[in-house]
Amino acid sequence: MSSVRLLLALAVTLWTVAFGNDRLSQWVATTELPVLVHATSSEVRDRHGELLRAYTIEDGLWRMAVTRDQVDPLFYEMLIAYEDKRFYRHGGVDLLATLRAVAQGLREGRIVSGASTLTMQVARLLEDGTTGQWQGKLRQVRVALALERRMSKDEILALYSLLAPYGGNVEGVRAASLIWLGKEPRRLTPAEAALLVALPQAPESRRPDRHPEAARDARNRVMLRMADAGVIPLTAAHSDALDPSPKGRHPMPQLAPHMADRAVARRDGRHDLTLDAGLQRSLEALARSHAARLDPRLSLAIVLADHQTGEILASVGSPDYASAQNDGFVDMTQAQRSPGSTLKPLVYGLAFDRGLAHPETLILDTPVQFGSYAPQNFDGQYRGELSVRRALQLSLNIPVVRLTEALGPAHLLAALKGAGLKPALQGGAPGLALSLGGVGLTLEEMTQLYAGLAHGGIARPLRWRVEDSGEGAQGQVLSAASAWQVQRILSDIPPPPTAGTAGQVAWKSGTSYGHRDAWALGWDGRHVAGVWIGRPDGTPVPGAFGAGLAAPVLFEALHRASPRPAPLGPPPPETLITTNAKLPANLQRFGPRADAVALQVTFPPNGATLQANEMGVPVKLRGGTPPFTILANGAVLATGLRRPQILAPLSGPGFTTISVIDSLGQSGRTTIELR
């Protein structure tokens, strides 16, 4: 009978103060309210407002900020009808409900119905107070009356929606909907709304993960009451009662965890990113599926952006954020690594701009030395004289170093900085190896560089937060004509066998020194993407090549962004499209002086058949400037030769192409058959 006496005493008190208006008014006016502003989980959302990731507040509590328009109106209709049907008519305390509860309690000898209003429940939640003692109940009454004076009904409902307990570490209707229902509460079925109404009445004994049957029974009771009250049809109450109740927790969204961490590290609260949740989800799945076929110590990162706006649409820092085996928590889109050959397109574009070369210019791929630096091709072979176009498509090292020497490494470094990148040099002044990846850059920076190439040579700063204006420095790194020439060359590189998009994507792969990093970057008419694969600790990955390892991921990422890729743009009007023969004389060939004496192989004659012997094959030269280097089928046989007569150590049998290169880079060749 103690609970009934408590209700009776409360009713007498309320009746007394109700007839002492002045005293009541002063009592309420002097009420010191508890804190009304509460911490909420930091949230990171995509460009459409979809939740990407949320973070608990202190003590590991989930409490999500919520507004009225984020919750299905059916929830509030049920809540008021079930908990406090005169909510909009009383001033915080429902005297009629209290008197009714007292009468029922005296008649039955126990509490049959409660008298606590929603406002009183909010008062209890604000103070985390007790309801079973006289002083606690009176304090709730006082705070409830004060809340009604100082806040609107909607503001009181908002506090309930934020603070109502839902079991465990879950508070508020939005966190409850995400965790128990696996969805935002914007659209709820009658059964879902009823569950969210029922749980706060006994949050621990009705927790769906521990007491699913109790949660279901409470939910069904709410639905039957709502059918009696006309809130929902009786048929809906009976049909939805058959739906199973949730039996466990749904995980909170964990999309773009690395970028979400970057955002929250700046400040708490809500963050709106330029990412697209659907595309982000798809590329995270792509990273996981591809990584599952690799050494588990390897990580993989992807950045995809709209190169027309500069907005990053997806960013995958690793295949598995929680993996300890490959340091999944490390965001490899932000790690400085050697970009390998992926810087070569910029070098060629700068050479086009400076009038040093044209795509049809002939350039030498022959042994060369700059002081103590003697660059080598990746495969150790030499192709002699070939077009600049072909040299870039084959990703040869020697031609690009020749161009870098003519440009000046400092000029290349300035171009990188002009594109908004922050290159990290290990030494002091930049050297010729800069064009082969001798610099530290991040995947996000490299994607930004390629966005500029795709955007007509204009630096395109990438942005990932909606609040950023996107009005950063947009200097002209390359002319539009040179950028288009680079695009045309790269779009003619055959794609991976599984891609099936030849000519629709301009792309370039790269492999850093020692096979530490495998890269692939490219763009279509709308999107630009970059892929990196390697070990986070920077140790070598034997046999890793960008073309074989990263390129298939690049093409699949672009395909998922746009199954029908936008066409690459047309050439600007000023673009010079012609053959080598029609180029100006100074652009027809890059390399030795025009007045240099031509180098010729006079013996053996081209097409000759010779008898192989252990002494080798005599080779006679005319012209050229010693010292000479002699090669057989691209492999160096000897260097530093100064006599015009050479004995090449060939013993056959078979066809052999003999090439000789002089100190000016001129070459001569002959093909013979040894028997």
From TrEMBL:
It is an enzyme of class 2 (transferase). Residues 58-226 form the Glycosyl transferase family domain. It comes from the Bacteria. GO terms for biological process: peptidoglycan biosynthetic process; proteolysis. Its EC number is 2.4.99.28. One of its GO terms (cellular component) is outer membrane-bounded periplasmic space. This is peptidoglycan glycosyltransferase. In the C-terminal section; belongs to the transpeptidase family. In the N-terminal section; belongs to the glycosyltransferase 51 family. Residues 596-669 form the Penicillin-binding C-terminal domain. One of its GO terms (molecular function) is carboxypeptidase activity. Keywords: Carboxypeptidase, Glycosyltransferase, Hydrolase, Multifunctional enzyme, Protease, Transferase. It catalyses: [GlcNAc-(1->4)-Mur2Ac(oyl-L-Ala-gamma-D-Glu-L-Lys-D-Ala-D-Ala)](n)-di-trans,octa-cis-undecaprenyl diphosphate + beta-D-GlcNAc-(1->4)-Mur2Ac(oyl-L-Ala-gamma-D-Glu-L-Lys-D-Ala-D-Ala)-di-trans,octa-cis-undecaprenyl diphosphate = [GlcNAc-(1->4)-Mur2Ac(oyl-L-Ala-gamma-D-Glu-L-Lys-D-Ala-D-Ala)](n+1)-di-trans,octa-cis-undecaprenyl diphosphate + di-trans,octa-cis-undecaprenyl diphosphate + H(+). InterPro entries: Beta-lactam/transpept-like, Glyco_trans_51, Glycosyltr_51/Transpeptidase, Lysozyme-like_dom_sf, PBP_1c, PBP_C, PBP_transglycosylase, PCN-bd_Tpept. Residues 301-512 form the Penicillin-binding protein transpeptidase domain. Pathway: Cell wall biogenesis; peptidoglycan biosynthesis. The keyword Membrane does not apply. Gene3D superfamilies: Biosynthetic peptidoglycan transglycosylase-like (1.10.3810.10), DD-peptidase/beta-lactamase superfamily (3.40.710.10). It holds the Pfam family BiPBP_C.
